[in-house]
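INFO batch 0412 | record 1 of 1 | parsing
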Amino acid sequence: MVDVEGSAVQSRWASHGNWQAMSIVKEMGGSVNSGDAVFLRAHTGAYIDVSGESVQARWAEKGDWQKLIIEKRGGNGPILPNDLICFRAHTGKYVHAQDAVLRAMWNECGDWQSMQIEREVVNAVFSGHSIHLLGHTGKRIEVEGTAVQARWAETGAWQTFTIENYGGRAVFSGDAVFLKSHTGTMLDVQGSAVQAMWNDKGGWQQLHIHKKHGSGAIMPGDSIFLQAHTGNLIDVEGTAVQARWSDKGDWQTLVIEKAANRRLSDSLVTQDAEQDFVSVTLRVFLLLAVMLLSLAAMMLWRRNRHVNCKVQPADCVDLHFIAQSQC
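INFO prediction complete | emitting tokens
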């Protein structure tokens, strides 16, 4: 893959991470066709430019040095995902990879100059996503303290992991990944033991994720294997989670699930809080109404007593110390 680090444009790894992600920008917008002038914007915000034979990504400008003509390796028409294409610079030379460095030296669109264009899989599992791992037993892998087991089918906090890869963005089959538990520690493998003891991202914590069937981006619902640094795969037997063998059987098969969106939970909490507020407000209103009715009843009672005092002065003896002015 072509990657950009700083201003250097190279081709060093098969990763599909942030350094490899680029946006194709067409000056007038619309679909991109073979023969169109385009610009390639790197994750740094700079556009790839060609100066002499050198290919770099130095500025956020869209000038002649940054303008590239995109061409299909064979045929014409719209550029589609997985097409083989070439980029022709303003110098008339085509961009190619040589010794992991990109240059523009020749005016032909050959094997060295051809590149495969890939569209990012937006529905894939991305680095930073919260996931669950479902074993063949119907139970999900969980962390309690430092212990890693598979005892329950729940999808709670103990069963939730954050998956991270080195490059960021979508996770692909074959990627090295780390699984962070709800405690903040990473899953690690020591011998055949699987536990979650440290927050380091070292060799013991590194797991290679592989699709059980096919290749490409890891999708929610995929059956996968997690290979430890020992070469063994994580397996589930009963409630025990270990890494004992290199077999790819049922015990080693895990289904990766995307965890429910936290925003949904937050919205439910907000909704509950709003309902509680309405309930409290209603109770306060009713209490005030009762108090006002009680006050009105007391005032009516006192008024009636005052009238009685005037009609029957003898009764005022009983009220002398309570409401002397009424008599």
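INFO post-check: Residues 275-326 form one domain.
INFO record closed
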